[in-house]
Amino acid sequence: MNKLLSAGAVALTLIGGGAWYMTQGAGTAPGAQIALPGAASAQEAGEVDTSSIVEMTLGAEDAPVEVIEYASYTCPHCANFHTSVFKDLKENYIDTGKVKFTYREVYFDKYGMWASLIARCGGEEKFFGITDMVYKGQQDWARGGSDEAIAESLRKIGRLAGLGSEELNACLTDSTKLRSLVAWYQENATRDDISSTPSFIIDGTKHSNMNYADFSALLDERLGE
């Protein structure tokens, strides 16, 4: 499993030490670029107000069991979980009102952050659908080579989800959201002692990656079934 960067290293990588560059979408001059803002220092990242960040959840608010997943869009183990385990977990526990499920992003690199910005661009309504598309296509977009190719692959996923090019570029250049997400990640990972992905907080207790059989058995035990 990929190991998390330290809070300071993440801040420096994602929002410090200069700008990120992503190519503009269709309709602009060839080679035109937009900068993902990155003026804040690592120290400033810890002072950002994170109250605007929306928790992405599925299931009944009053479900008897709460599951929080910490995952990175560039983590192969996370992609495997979402393409092999999550469907059954959703069908048998989330959709049936037994589990409230929350997804929280963690960041290993700028590509995971870009994917996060794309997933959140459509709001709560589209978040999990885009997340599913990002994970299913991870082997393609994450190995795109250049920043330009990876950025365009992620924008393509956003367009397939019904988002417009202008909307996507606005999301990718939202400096306020960028800083807030990094600070939010740091707060969450520190509080819940997250050291690798995927990790799961089930009713307050941390667990490492599991197959469906083990996950189901653990949930059934919590549910008294």
TrEMBL record:
The protein's name in its UniProt record: Thioredoxin domain-containing protein
Source organism of this protein record: Ponticoccus alexandrii
Pfam families: Thioredoxin_4
InterPro entries: Thioredoxin-like_fold, Thioredoxin-like_sf
Family of this protein: Belongs to the thioredoxin family. DsbA subfamily.
Domain Thioredoxin-like fold: 54-221
